[in-house]
């Protein structure tokens, strides 16, 4: 299989490499000349054999919309577009309508794995028709971790379902990070705790709170024990807000996720050791930018 990949940033660059290691031929395009395989989208489309599959891995919002609009004008009937970015699920409906009118297939795929995906593989949540998902399975299999497909890949439902599932995933992530961060601040505030990194390290095996996020927390503390290099300003990339909005729209109580989102807002006003830890965790798993300590 040979696909095109548009967007070779923090995620796309590693995804290209993992796909190639998994036996999928990839031609990638990015505006950065240091990483791109071709000079333009037009060049990309000449390299990928028909019927083409083009994976879009660019920032959500206007950039994704512009990329899909461009592809709608340049692709042929029978081609397929997969949006693997963090688009809002409501945008998927618009993109599918635009492409379907021209006979172009569309799949949305939530992707989790951050900067560690090349090494560990990616968790994948796909939305689209059964036929389109079946056609793209070799791509999903190359990207996901080794083992049973059901452990790391799911066909969630129709168009939009993949990004909806990823949105909720990220909302849960907000709550988990906030809980770890608040525990960190409480431990750090008590002078009887003399080995803070060791305390978290002791929780990594055999305890009910063990997780990959906890492993990353320990890694962050080993790299910067007092988190002195980090500011406590924590960005949000949208999914937490959308999750809370959906909770309100569907009358589903989500106090933990909502509080975690509001805590990020609060981090932009006051100094907080807990929010330093949230910032450290986002950097550890996703390579997200941090603010330097003031």
Automatic annotation (TrEMBL):
Gene Ontology MF annotations: NADP binding; phosphogluconate dehydrogenase (decarboxylating) activity
Matching Gene3D superfamilies: N-(1-d-carboxylethyl)-l-norvaline Dehydrogenase, domain 2 (1.10.1040.10), NAD(P)-binding Rossmann-like Domain (3.40.50.720)
One Pfam family hit: NAD_binding_2
Location of the 6-phosphogluconate dehydrogenase C-terminal domain: 162-290
GO biological process: D-gluconate metabolic process; pentose-phosphate shunt
Domain of life, source organism: Bacteria
Signal peptide: none
Keyword terms: Gluconate utilization, Oxidoreductase
SUPFAM superfamilies associated with the record: 6-phosphogluconate dehydrogenase C-terminal domain-like, NAD(P)-binding Rossmann-fold domains
Family: Belongs to the 6-phosphogluconate dehydrogenase family.
Record-given protein name: Decarboxylating 6-phosphogluconate dehydrogenase
Protein encoded by which gene: gnd
């Amino acid at each position: 299989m040979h696909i095109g990949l548009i967007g070779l940033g923090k995620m796309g660059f590693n995804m290209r490499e993992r796909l190639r290691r998994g036996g999928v031929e990839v031609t990638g395009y990015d505006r950065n000349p240091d990483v791109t395989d071709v000079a333009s989208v037009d060049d990309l489309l000449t390299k990928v054999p028909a019927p083409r599959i083009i994976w879009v891995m660019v920032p959500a919002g206007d950039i994704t919309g512009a990329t899909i609009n461009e592809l709608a004008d340049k692709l042929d009937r029978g081609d397929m577009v997969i949006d693997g970015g963090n688009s809002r699920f409501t945008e998927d409906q618009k993109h599918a309508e635009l492409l379907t009118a021209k006979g172009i297939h569309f799949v949305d795929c939530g992707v989790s794995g951050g900067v560690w995906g090349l090494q560990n593989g990616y968790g994948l949540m796909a939305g689209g028709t059964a036929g389109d998902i079946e056609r793209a399975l070799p791509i999903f299999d190359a990207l996901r971790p080794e083992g049973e497909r059901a452990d790391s890949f799911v066909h969630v439902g129709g168009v939009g379902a993949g990004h909806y599932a990823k949105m909720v995933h990220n909302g849960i992530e907000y709550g988990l990070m906030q809980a770890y961060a608040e525990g960190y601040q409480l431990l750090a505030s008590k002078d009887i705790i003399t080995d803070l990194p060791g305390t978290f390290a002791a929780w990594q095996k055999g305890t009910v709170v063990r997780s990959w996020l906890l492993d990353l927390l320990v890694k962050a503390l080993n790299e910067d024990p007092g988190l002195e290099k980090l500011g406590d300003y924590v960005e949000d990339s949208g999914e937490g807000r959308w999750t809370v909005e959906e909770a309100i729209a569907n009358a589903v109580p989500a106090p933990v996720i909502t509080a975690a989102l509001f805590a990020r807002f609060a981090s932009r006003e006051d100094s907080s050791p807990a929010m330093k830890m949230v910032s450290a965790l986002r950097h550890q798993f996703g390579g997200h930018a941090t603010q330097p300590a003031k």
